[in-house]
Specification:
Layout: E1 26-28, E2 85-90, H1 110-122, E3 127-131, H2 149-162, E4 165-168, H3 172-175, H4 179-187, E5 194-196, E6 200-202, E7 213-214, E8 216-219, E9 227-233, H5 235-238, E10 252-253, H6 257-270, E11 275-281, H7 284-300, E12 309-312, E13 324-326, E14 330-334, E15 341-348, E16 356-364, H8 380-394, H9 407-411, H10 420-424, H11 428-435, H12 442-448, H13 459-462, H14 489-493, H15 497-501, H16 506-512, H17 528-542, H18 556-563, H19 568-571
Parallel strand pairs: 1-16, 2-3, 3-4, 4-5, 5-7, 9-11, 11-12, 12-14
Antiparallel strand pairs: 2-15, 6-10, 8-9, 13-14, 15-16
Length: 581
């Protein structure tokens, strides 16, 4: 069955509205949302409530210092005034806790999001923050296994708590942990932010989510109208599109969506909700069908509550700038990926007894939301990032990564990493080029990094700042394999011990330098098409680390001339040109 066209409703249900309760009619104008984050090891994906006895209780205030109004930009919140309440929506973080900082500008980051929320509070706006879920990452960066994913999830939830989030749903990424692990990591012992799911029945065989997951929640501890929040998971998220089997076999959902909607919306209404927000783990088509159903029920009985905002799964990494408006009422919003954006919905009531009017603003979480120098202690999320890297160090996470065979080791058993100093013996000119490049002190940048520090203990940073991490005989840690710190010769060429032992072995030379053009005597020069193909292969190799998230300006045709390291005899011969021209 096509996931995109599957109806979101299960068996037919009789929807009998609760009698004798009032409904607040809402005329809604514009909404769209987004969030995710770039992270540092954190970088490749780290990282990136109204609380009672929670972590956030110590930190939430309207007086925390933030850089001079970073929200004061042309066109941003123009003509808004002060809303009755502002609802901040985020989600699909995908493990990106913070920008790695390897280049600028980078977007997203939980510490920056904290400052954004503080800036809104400093305007006197009551804030209700909610998250769609998918906080965790599905896989590690640069081909790494997902060793740090569970720790990232825990710190992401702690960060949402420090920002004052009310509720968060869960999605595919949490179910792949699996969901029982995610709930045990945080929700088991922490009441906020509350994990909400109205149709979750079990999260492991025969285990009910009692005390860890709520069907719904009310954001009431703010000076504004009550916002009701509930979560739902659709079939399109529950089922793996490739295997057609449940992503997490232990998770069971109530697929009678019509009955769940009736129960949840009237439950929120009974608790005094005036605005209704759905954190919907489903796609846009499913969200439209769901909104149409709710509107149809409301038309039959005006006392049946309408959904004001549906935050759903993004079809693309970058979110649309505007929401979809269904039946002139319900806003369907996508948030994008990696926390680069958040959406802010402002609820206004021109007539104290009239309906709400909603305005929407999508905010890009850019460098303007950095914590001012010297004020780092005012940002609790920055403290959590330091705790995260300290946990990586104390837990010896580098040792948790299993070593596998490098492609050279598959074809040449016995090949080991030897370090760049060994290469200098025969390739002195190339070694000098390397010494003058940024590659030669890549490890030091991790040691010297601040906010957070200790990144030399983060495998998701280490993989791109050392030689052969996660490969057999590659970098382990600074004590055991100091000769493999920095980005060295073997980072690109592979383990070279057999080449050192047999420097004239042609097969070994080809294995270590497969993208070098080698013209046979009397053969025609390289064709433009073949040359371009070779450039593309070199670029693909570089972009395992110099990807658009971490090196935003990388261009192999500009970067290659800085590290060209042919031997003097070959330097003037275009037939052996090793890289892009």
């Amino acid at each position: 069955m096509d996931r995109d066209t599957h109806a979101p409703f299960g068996p037919a249900a009789t929807l009998e509205p609760v009698r004798g309760q009032n409904v607040v009619a809402a005329a809604l104008i514009g909404v769209a949302v987004s969030a995710g984050l770039v992270a540092f090891g954190l970088a490749s994906g780290l990282f990136a409530n109204v609380c009672r006895d929670s972590f956030a209780q110590q930190y939430i205030s309207t007086t925390q210092p933030v850089a001079a109004d970073p929200l004061n930009k042309p066109g941003q919140f123009q003509g808004w005034g002060r809303p009755e309440v502002a609802i901040l929506l985020s989600g699909e973080q995908h493990g990106y806790l913070q920008p790695c900082g390897c280049s600028s500008p980078q977007y997203g980051g939980l510490a920056r999001r904290y400052n954004l929320i503080q800036a809104l509070r400093q305007r006197g706006w009551p804030i209700v923050a909610v998250d769609l879920g998918d906080l965790n990452q599905k896989a590690g960066p640069s081909g790494l296994s997902n060793i740090q994913g569970t720790l990232k999830y825990e710190y992401a939830m702690k960060s949402l708590d420090a920002m004052g989030y009310t509720a968060v749903n869960f999605g595919e990424y949490e179910m792949r942990m699996p969901l029982g692990t995610a709930l045990a990591l945080y929700a088991l012992n922490n009441p906020t932010p509350r994990v909400v799911s109205a149709n979750l029945l079990e999260f492991a065989p025969n285990q009910k989510p009692i005390g860890m997951v709520s069907e719904l929640d009310i954001a009431a501890k703010h000076a504004g109208p009550k916002v009701g929040v509930f979560g739902l998971t659709a079939w399109s998220v529950e089922i793996d599109p490739n295997t057609k089997a449940p992503i997490d076999p232990g998770v069971k959902f109530d697929n009678n969506t019509a009955a769940v909607l009736f129960r949840s919306l009237n439950g929120l209404k009974a608790k005094g909700a005036e605005l209704f927000v759905l954190l919907y783990q489903g796609n846009t088509k499913e969200a439209k069908a769901l909104a149409d159903h709710v509107v149809a029920q409301n038309q039959q009985n005006p006392k049946f509550p309408l959904i004001d905002v549906i935050l759903c799964v993004s079809g693309n990494p970058e979110p649309p700038a505007q929401p979809i408006i269904v039946n002139e009422h319900t806003m369907i919003v996508e948030v994008g990926h990696k926390g680069k954006y958040v959406g802010v919905v402002g609820a206004f009531r021109p007539n104290p007894k009239g309906p709400f009017q909603l305005k929407y603003q999508m905010v890009c979480v850019g460098p303007e939301f950095e914590t001012p120098k010297g004020q780092e202690k005012s940002n609790p999320v920055m403290g959590l990032q330091e705790d995260y890297t300290l946990d990586l160090k104390n837990g010896n996470y580098l040792a948790k990564y299993k070593q596998t065979k490098h492609p050279v080791q598959v074809n040449f058993p016995g090949a080991e990493y030897v370090g760049s100093a060994k290469c200098k013996m025969c390739h002195e000119d190339a070694y000098k080029v390397w010494q003058g490049s940024n590659h030669s002190h890549a490890y030091k940048t991790l040691v010297d990094a601040k906010n957070p520090s200790l990144r030399q203990h983060d495998g998701e940073c280490i993989v791109c700042h050392t030689v052969g991490f996660s490969y057999n005989t590659g970098f382990e840690n600074e004590n055991n394999t100091k000769f493999l710190t920095d980005v060295g010769c073997e980072s690109c060429h592979g383990p070279a011990s057999l080449h050192v032992a047999r420097p004239k072995d042609k097969d070994m030379r080809v294995a270590l330098n497969p993208n070098k053009f080698r013209a046979a005597p009397g053969a025609p020069p390289e064709t433009p098409a073949a040359h371009q193909l070779r450039i593309n292969k070199i670029s693909d190799s570089c972009m395992k680390c110099h990807d658009p998230e971490n090196d935003v300006h990388f261009d192999v045709t500009k970067a290659w001339p800085k590290i060209v390291h042919m031997t003097p005899a070959a330097a003037g011969n275009p037939q052996v040109q090793a890289g892009p021209k």
